Amino acid sequence: RLLGSLQATRALMVAAILLGLVAVFVAVTGMKCMKCMEDDQVKKMRMAVFGGVIFIIAGLAALVATSWYGNRVARAFYDPFTPVNTRFEFGSALFIGWAAASLAMLGGAFLCCSCPRRETSYPPTRGYPKNAPSTGKDYV
After folding, report:
1. 3-state per-residue secondary structure call for 98-116
2. Can you list the domains of the chain with their CATH numbers?
3. d(Cα 45, Cα 50) in Å, to the nearest integer?
């Protein structure tokens, strides 16, 4: 029988993995190179942003689970009543979990930044008129 906190961290990691898979499928639907929803670019961009939001939620779930377990390991390590031969230390899985959570949130933030800009009521800007190229003989 596992402790309740260990079951909760496992459940959070499974939820983060499943949310990450859903985010991949939603974000891929919103990519410009996909033929799905090709007729409405605004909805397509919103799908990409929605995928980014799901990525951020998945990253937060992974971050909470990894940090919660890391806190448990640190408290058990510094507990004077824990025998020396049963103490755990931070392993590579914790660092991989923190890195994965950070990358998922960073990727979700990048997808959220791809939000389409709202149209303004200003007239479009015109560039300066282009002059004919100089031949170099114009100088006296």
Report:
1. HHHHHHHHHHHHHHHCCCC
2. 1-81+93-114 (1.20.140.150)
3. 9
Tokens of 68: 């919660």
Amino acid at 67: S
Phi and psi, residue 25, nearest 5° = -65, -40
Q: Tokens 């660092």 identify what position?
A: 95
d(CA 39, CA 46) in angstroms, rounded, equals 13
> Can you tell me the distance from the alpha carbon of 59 to that of 55, in angstroms, rounded to the nearest whole number?
6
10-residue averages of pLDDT along the chain (140 residues): 89 97 93 78 87 97 96 87 80 94 96 72 62 64
- How many CA within 13 A on the CB side of residue 44? 14
Those residues with Cβ within 8 angstroms of residue 96's Cβ, 6 or more apart along the chain or in another chain: none
The H or E element that residue 23 is part of is: helix 4-29
Q: Which position has the token pair 């590579």?
A: 92
Digit-coded pLDDT (tens) for 9-34: 999 999 999 999 999 999 998 887 77
